[in-house]
Amino acid sequence: MYKIAVAGTGYVGLVAGVCFAEVGHQVTCVDIDESKVNVMKSGVSPIYETGLEELMQKNYAAGRIDYTTDYKSAYRDADAIFIGVGTPEQPDGSANLSYIATVARQIAESVENDCLVVVKSTVPVGTNDKVEQFIQDFLVNDVKVEVASNPEFLAQGSAVHDTLHAERIIIGTESKWAEELLMKLYEPFNLPIVSVNRRSAEMIKYASNDFLALKISYMNDIANLCELVGADVQDVAKGMSYDARIGNKFLNAGIGYGGSCFPKDTKALEYIAKQHGYELRTVKAAIDVNTDQKTMLYKKASKRLITFNGLKVAVLGLTFKPGTDDLREAASLENVPLLLEQGADIYAYDPVGADNFTKVHPEGQHGKGSMTYVSDVEEALKDANVCFIFTEWGEVKAVTPGKYKELMRTPLVYDGRNIYRIEEMQEAGVEYRSIGRKA
Ligand code: UGA
């Protein structure tokens, strides 16, 4: 078993650290935030993620994982140091690499043994070459340090499962030593490993995420056309899905993809291409479709209603997808300001995302409109003039069509996730509008 340090305790770092401990390695997770470190030591996960807390507690009790702000002691004699810090998007679409640079410098100043630095964060192609050079430039002791790429494919909400049962592990290395060490680290997971060079590994991450973003935008484009020609996008998707070359996943049309990955990684790859004088037209199209798609329902509702001024608007779901409290690039963040500007009185429900949303849109008056957070769906729907569904939480899906009819002043529902069958809503007497379907 190996001694592993992990830099950064966000989704990527913390989940990786916990899973390496789970398979038997000795792990130390490093974060600059002292209070976060103390929270993790007490067995509490700083992020909402199924199964994570249990594994944190189990492995902490077994002495296989610890958390610290003292990077020097964590890096000093580690066999491998995994970097899982953020690479946020900058205004021009490029990735901000300053967190990676900080960690690289700390590693260079701390390591006393030969060690492999493994970059898990999503980084522009060629970054790992630069990180390796950067570490060499600042290296204090006479030891061997190499850099490997090992992109992460976990999705929020199923991060632990995705890591322990990954469909593939991608490792990008430039030497036999690095390749063999990474293979050994991953041996206990017993998963398929694809070993390539560093630049290909970096590219695999972007190409995979952007392909999935393209798939969603393609279905949203088809959905919009379905509405115009009188077809039903869910039936179309079902018919397509039987072709094994297309598959049955990621064919759901809706109000666009959000989250911390697809929006960022599509823009980053477009930027990388531009830097090389190439226009990545397919990805650019995916981005354009997604931008328009996010406010599709608002545009539909604006045509139907004379004004939102003074209307009670129920908003069901705020997060970018169910199973997370993450709001990054969520469609709600585009639609809520538009509705408030138009004077809507919003009653928002989200089982876990409301706390984060209040930080952006606090409860109370916002110009002509107002924002109220409620803790159950029925309170949001009571006497509402119109309802928007932005996230397909189980709690939202559980609302029967009859409830909209019974509770709302006017049962007018705009569903961005195609949760209901059109017929059931019609039968219940609900005026129902969704994405890519007749209604
Ligand atoms: C995504 C990828 O799925 C992971 O493989 C990848 O590792 C991760 O990014 C990352 O780069 O870290 P994530 O952003 O957590 O994971 O969430 P997804 O479940 O992929 O959903 C992204 C967005 O697409 C959500 O807003 C979701 O509602 C939307 N989506 C997904 C659709 O609109 N339609 C679909 O059919 C599927």
From TrEMBL:
The UniProt entry, under InterPro entries, shows: 6-PGluconate_DH-like_C_sf, NAD(P)-bd_dom_sf, UDP-Glc/GDP-Man, UDP-Glc/GDP-Man_DH_C, UDP-Glc/GDP-Man_DH_C_sf, UDP-Glc/GDP-Man_DH_dimer, UDP-Glc/GDP-Man_DH_N, UDPglc_DH_bac
Q: Which sites bind NAD(+)?
A: 31, 36, 87, 122, 264, 328
Which residues constitute the signal peptide according to the record? Answer: none
The UDP-glucose/GDP-mannose dehydrogenase C-terminal domain covers: 314-422
Tell me where on the tree of life, at the top rank, the source sits.
Answer: Bacteria
Mind listing the UniProt keywords for this protein, alphabetically? NAD, Oxidoreductase
Protein name according to UniProt: UDP-glucose 6-dehydrogenase
Q: Which organism is it from?
A: Alkalihalophilus pseudofirmus (strain ATCC BAA-2126 / JCM 17055 / OF4)
